[in-house]
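Researcher: Let's do a round of design. I'm pasting the structure tokens now; please hold your answer until I've finished.
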């Protein structure tokens, strides 16, 4: 047995048992301390501990270092310096992770995978997201952010995107939220048009309202026209009286044009056609209370009940000769009238006030109800 040199110091003996390390080498060690400055100290089996400063590891938005690393964890890092100036070995967690992340990232890009990530930075040009240690830039034009939105509100939000450009030599990586959103929208659109049928019911959102109807958004992929005639049976109602922008409503498909991708809708609350049972509810010679809706040169239209109107011809308003209906009647006025004809097929009812003159059922005062009006 060789005789141990009695003059060797303890430090030299310890150094002989420790491994040799060099810059650029990958080492694995155990977390022994996390400081208030978020520095991570690691026992790497060397005469000096390793230190990973906060700028050499990556945290997600709102993630804390103590949640990512814990005392006793085994961590792999790359040596940047043998002495950081304070006697510690300077390490980079990011560099060690990047090789692993690079392979996984490239595999996902080649497979056209969908990425999910938290927006870490926002600037005037776009968003920055991360796949572990790899930064990805999403230009504002590919962010799918509306012009009236504040891009800075996206910081800390999770977004889904695809990588549309990747150059490992220049480290240029471009992501697109818009492309993924367009692909998902097309898939939903194809599914809708492949399964849509006349009579099928959908829940939609009122997108806009005009004088003649409303446009209803279904699943964010198709807009259908809901004409006022398909919203209510009442002719005196306007679309804005029935629905409002942003309201969710149930609609049915009335007409379908798959080739041009157009649909016409029926409001689920429109209800059955009141004319279907008109002959069961009213008979010729019945005296009813009606409400004057509007005038025409030849007479006045009066509301009998929801969706049912009758015409009072100018010759049937009163005994004396008049030039215009408004010489005697007013819009909104309620009067007693006699049914003189019913044409169910053509949805027409003729009324007469004149035939009641001289009886107990004469013209009644405006807004005074002598008989319950069927609203």
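Researcher: That's everything. Go ahead.
Model: Designed sequence:
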């Amino acid at each position: 047995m060789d005789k141990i040199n009695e003059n060797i110091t303890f430090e030299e003996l310890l150094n002989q048992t420790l491994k040799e390390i060099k810059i650029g080498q990958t080492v694995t060690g155990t977390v022994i301390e996390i400081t208030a400055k978020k520095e991570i100290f690691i026992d790497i089996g060397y005469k000096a501990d390793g230190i990973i400063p906060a700028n050499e590891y990556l945290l997600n938005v709102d993630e804390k270092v103590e949640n990512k690393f814990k005392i006793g964890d085994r961590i792999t890092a790359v040596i940047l310096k043998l002495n950081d100036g304070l006697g510690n070995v300077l390490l980079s967690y990011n560099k060690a992770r990047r090789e692993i992340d690079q392979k996984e990232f490239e595999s996902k890009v080649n497979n056209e995978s969908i990425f999910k990530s938290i927006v870490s930075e926002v600037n005037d040009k776009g968003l920055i997201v991360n796949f572990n240690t790899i930064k990805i830039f999403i230009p504002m034009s590919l962010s799918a952010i509306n012009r009236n939105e504040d891009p800075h509100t996206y910081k800390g939000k999770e977004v889904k995107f695809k990588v549309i450009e990747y150059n490992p030599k220049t480290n240029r990586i471009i992501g697109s939220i818009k492309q993924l959103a367009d692909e998902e929208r097309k898939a939903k659109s194809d599914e809708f048009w492949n399964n849509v049928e006349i009579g099928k019911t959908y829940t939609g959102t009122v997108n806009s309202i005009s004088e003649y109807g409303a446009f209803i958004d279904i699943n964010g992929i198709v807009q259908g026209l809901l004409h006022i005639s398909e919203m209510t049976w009442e002719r005196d109602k306007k679309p804005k009286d029935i629905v409002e922008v942003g309201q969710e409503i149930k609609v049915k498909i009335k007409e379908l044009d798959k080739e041009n991708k157009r649909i016409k809708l029926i409001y689920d609350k429109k209800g059955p056609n009141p004319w279907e049972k008109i002959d069961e509810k009213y008979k010729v010679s019945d005296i009813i209370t009606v409400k004057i809706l509007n005038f025409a040169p030849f007479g006045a239209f009066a509301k009998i009940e929801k969706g049912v109107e009758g015409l009072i011809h100018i010759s049937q308003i009163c005994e004396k000769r008049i030039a215009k209906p408004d010489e005697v009647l007013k819009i909104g006025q309620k009067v007693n009238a006699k049914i003189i004809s019913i044409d169910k097929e053509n949805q027409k009812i003729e009324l007469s006030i004149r035939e009641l003159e001289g009886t107990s059922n004469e013209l009644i005062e405006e807004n005074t109800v002598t008989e319950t009006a069927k609203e």
